[in-house]
Amino acid sequence: MLGVLTALGKEKMCPAFSSPKTHYLMKEQLLHYAWRTRRFSSENLATTKGEPIEILHPGHLNNDAGPDFLLARIKIGDTVWAGQVEMHLRSSDWQKHGHQHDPAYDNVILHVVYEDDLPVHRAGGSPIPCLEMKNRISRRLAVHYERLIHTESWVPCAERLSEADELTRSLWLDRMATERLQTKADQMAEALQLQEWDWEEVCFQFLSRSLGGKVNAEPMQMLAERTPLSLIRKYRNSLFQVEALLFGQSGLLDGDFEEEYPQRLQQEYRFLQRKHGLQPLPPTTWKYLRLRPANFPAFRIAQLATLVFRQTGLFSKIAAARSLPELANLFEVKLSNYWRSHYTFGKKAVRPPRRLGEQAIRLIIINAIAPLLFLYGQRQGGEKASTLALRLMEELEPEANNIISRWSATGLSPCSAFHSQGLLHLKQQYCNKSRCLECAIGHALLKQADKAEEAEAAGFLGEAWAFDWRLLSVPFAPEEQNESAMGCLMAEGRPA
Fold it and tell me: Which residues touch 261 (CB under 8 Å, ≥6 apart)?
């Protein structure tokens, strides 16, 4: 438990709290949350100058550069203002962040702070009304927030996840899955712009990336970028030349071979390299640690070469597909004879699979095809493509990996790839970053407090925890000082 000094009447400090690295219970994220959900006392709400305040609309949280909340509507005195709201722990942070010189903050209509320690002004010199929240945010909310984000569980709410109702969890997973899909679509949109709106080229790049799996995703995309589809199309009538291009550009033909097939590929690539001025990747780009043979780079590149050779105009065929089986059939490709007995060059193996497996095809659709269709529907105005993308995710089985297994152990078991993608996004983008206040599940848990929790909170912050909000301003020791702080608390006979 965090060591907290509470002072009723006089404050007694110990050396652990005199460090300039002192942390505070209040976090700016909690200030954002209290403002956005209006979970603070609004009695006699007024600026630090005494002007009455009425919040008509708190605004929308801004996740990009600029003020924290956009399009707020606030009545200050007799005037209704429309604009932005900026938040800080202390009003002096305005100057520390240089906002007084930034025209982007000229439209701030209210400065919401935990503690007002300095009047602030816009770039033009006009003062900004300030609302101090020090005595308006309940300790109960702060205690639940601290308990939630400082847990040592795999995810902050693991032990309390069942307390959030099923509807809240289901709707939030829908939101997470859609957010992840949109994030991938946005990444593809950037690539699409760089490729001058060549959908086939972008499809090739992200198909390559997906084939690389988690370990070699980046090298496979780098290979696709160094070997553009426009170059491969010149040799679309020869699988051997397509293989020579891709294997040569991968750097995997850099060596001495005893077998005829890689020797011929090496010779052909040297000719194509001189002709087109090609630069291969360093062979050390590829990773093999803990890879199954079916995921070895050479084997995946052989599958990519065959797929590109067999399926010309692949994206056009994907866009025209109307069902999951129809899409899956596009990836039913057989490898050339050499790969019947090899996973990599120069090493024979016992009957490697000649086709892409069901799991590999499923991951291609999840990570490459569905996001691309989702983007295509958005950019081309075709709702059918976006709807198909969502339907594909709902029809596919969930992924099987360590993160999904651990979610299942908490009671959240996905029934489709749509929700397993949502769980991956929730873990990576929210739980790992302690964004509990932006999570619907975290929000639901913060609203709940049974009698046992209230007793624990009282022990943590003192008897008057529900009313004495001023005690929130008392600092607590960072982790490296906890032992010293705990000693002070025990010496005073207070609970730690």
Answer: 338
Q: Which residues contact 109 (CB under 8 A, 6 or more apart)?
A: 72, 74, 76, 81, 82, 83, 84, 85, 128, 129
Tell me if 117 sits within 8 A of 92, measured CB to CB: yes
Mean local confidence (pLDDT), 436-457: 66
| Dihedral sign, Cα of residue 165, residue 169, residue 174, residue 176 | positive
Exposure class string for 430-442: b at 16+ Cβ within 10 A, else e = bbeebebbbbbbb
User: Measured in whole angstroms, how far is the alpha carbon of residue 364 from the centre of its chain?
Assistant: 20
> How do 69-76 and 475-476 pair as beta strands?
unpaired
Write out the two tokens for 443. Answer: 């929000």
Cα 225 to Cα 219: distance, rounded to the nearest angstrom? 10
Contact 221, 209 (CB under 8 A): yes
Nearest Cα residue to 318 out of 203, 402, 219, 418: 203
- Using CA atoms in the order 63, 206, 227, 223, what is the torsion angle rounded to 10 degrees? 80
Q: pLDDT higher for 469 or 310?
A: 310
Question: Would you say residue 451 has pLDDT above 60?
Answer: no
Distance of alpha carbon 135 from alpha carbon 463, whole angstroms: 17
CB atoms within 10 A of CB 191: 16
Dihedral, 250, 254, 259, 264 alpha carbons, nearest 10: 70
pLDDT tens figures, 26-70: 578 888 888 988 888 888 999 999 999 999 999 988 877 889 999
Contacts of 232 (CB under 8 A, 6+ apart): 242, 245, 246, 308
Share of the chain above pLDDT 90, in %: 57
| DSSP 8-class letter at 185 | H
Nearest-Å Rg of the Cα atoms of the chain is: 29
Contact 212, 220 (CB under 8 A): yes
pLDDT at 141 over 80: no
The alpha carbon of residue 416 and the mean position of all alpha carbons in its chain are separated, in whole angstroms, by: 20
CA triplet 365, 371, 375: central angle to 5 degrees?
140
User: Structural domain boundaries of the chain?
Assistant: 15-152+451-475, 161-194+361-433, 198-356
Q: What is the pTM of this model?
A: 0.68
What is the tally of helices (H) and strands (E) in the chain? 20, 10
Structure confidence at residue 458 (pLDDT): 41
Q: Which phi and psi (to 5°) does residue 125 adopt?
A: 100, -10
For the cut 90, the answer to whether the pLDDT of residue 432 exceeds it is no
